[in-house]
Amino acid sequence: MADSVVYLYAVTDAPAEEPADEGALAGVDGVPVRRIVSGDLAAVVSSVDPTRFSEEALRRSLEDLQWLERIARAHNAVVTAVARSGPVAPVRLATVYLDDENVRTLLDERGAEFTAALDRIRGRAEWGVKGFAVRAEADTSPQATEESKPGTAYLMRRRAERDRAARGLQDAAEAAEAAHRALSAVAVASRRYKAQDPRLSGRREEMVLNVAYLVDEAGAEALRRLVERQQGEDLRLELTGPWAPYSFATLEEGP
């Protein structure tokens, strides 16, 4: 068995010279990152243990959430660092090749696809926008006549609260759609994702919008201003980024 196999993070342009600080960048298991160059493309890789990253070991490890989180953090840290100096096309998590030559073969055979992905996101960044329904203030006005029994009054209040919440959610959803149309106008592309459960979002409010936008560097400030203008009584928007363009350049490559 070989002493190591090659973990692939992403593909980027082959620079005239390797960035001076990239040799100090650590990837999975703290191993330094390096580049494999073929033509105009460079694969960003590091060497990893062949036993721990064998096909069988990976099948087991991908079910270990702690392992998965650790690898994902290292993977993302490398992609984010490389993205600071140019366009980067990430590949899926835990993509491993037997040796450098197999990676060069990938660059040669899929070069056109990688080049197209890099050209698509060149000079652009990914921004995330999440929209949350604003919770309506509880209505403390009487909901029943003086003759109403306590139990009846309680049920009437609960029904009124549910109706108010439903109307508020509908209003927020409509505001979110209007915001998405406006934000899409200043973006090159967008990708919608499912709304996150409050347990994942960390917010008590209902999420009504979850979109990634690909934006030219020159348009970032316009996006920020537009997000501020789209805030309203029914909707709160949360802007994050800029990020490496995972939503628009990730390629599902495998060995």
Characterization of the model:
This protein has 255 residues and is an alpha+beta fold. The chain has 2 domains: 5-122; 125-247, Alpha-Beta Plaits (2-Layer Sandwich). It contains 8 helices and 8 strands. The chain has helices at residues 55-61, 65-83, 100-109, 111-121, 150-185, 198-201, 220-229, 246-249, and strands at 5-13, 34-38, 41-48, 88-97, 124-133, 189-192, 207-216, 235-243. Strand 2 and strand 3 form a beta hairpin. The radius of gyration is 24 Å and the shape is globular. It starts with a strand and ends in a 6-residue tail after the last helix. The model has no long low-confidence stretch (mean pLDDT 85). Its main location: other. This is GvpL/GvpF family gas vesicle protein.
Radius of gyration (CA) equals 24 Å
Shape: globular
Strand order of the largest sheet: 2-3-1-4
Content-based structural category: alpha+beta
Order of helices and strands: EEEHHEHHEHEHEHEH
Number of extended strands: 8
Unreliable spans = none
The main β sheet shows up as:
4 strands, antiparallel
The CATH C-level name of the largest domain is Alpha Beta
- Number of distinct helices: 8
Family: Belongs to the gas vesicle GvpF/GvpL family.
Subcellular location: Gas vesicle
Protein name: GvpL/GvpF family gas vesicle protein
InterPro entries: GvpL/GvpF
